[in-house]
Amino acid sequence: MRINEIFRSVQGETSSAGLPTIFVRTGGCNLRCTYCDTPYALTTTGSIHMTVGAIMHEVRKLKTKRVCLTGGEPLIQPRQEVQELLDLLAAEGYEVSIETSGSIPIAAFGLHPKQRWILDMKVPSSGEMEKMKFESLTELRPEDEVKFVVGNYADFRWSVELIKMYDLDGKVQLIFSPVWGQVTPLQLTEWALDTGIDARVQIQLHKIIWHPETRGV
Length: 217
Description:
Layout: E1 2-10, E2 20-26, E3 48-49, H1 52-61, E4 66-70, H2 79-91, E5 95-100, E6 115-121, E7 145-150, H3 153-165, E8 173-178, H4 185-195, E9 199-201, H5 205-209
Parallel strand pairs: 2-4, 4-5, 5-6, 6-7, 7-8, 8-9
Antiparallel strand pairs: 1-2, 1-3
């Protein structure tokens, strides 16, 4: 697998926000979102090839039983290697979240107990909405999460309509998050409360604790 970085920090997003987490960030992405906040992971430049065994060795050294597999886009890595990593993490008792864009079908991957999808559906302003594999929304379980990073009110309304179309409210965990610097937390909170949807409003915690462009946090 191509690995950009492995580090320990607190989770800045999702239902695990604030909890100590090991991040395994892969190198390379099949999308070019307008609001991407990890441009250094878009290509394999700066990443190194690591075997699954080597990744596990680095994870064990960080002594935290919570792992986030992220990118880039982790699911463009060789499927067999991704699955092997998930299997080994499960065998050693790690809690795992897999952050994926929604552009890669998830049905081919087998998750274990204590493992969940974080499906980051790309909204219209991302420029990549048409690449979403919406069928993945039908594969989700109650413990899985769907995140919408919205850059304007049109993005938000699109997200709400998608939630209704796939009847996601109450079936999976839902997250609305603002594009940093484009939508204020107050705006997003007011929009979310008006819908009556049982969704979490979330601000990227790591961008508040550290400078928004700080890497490895």
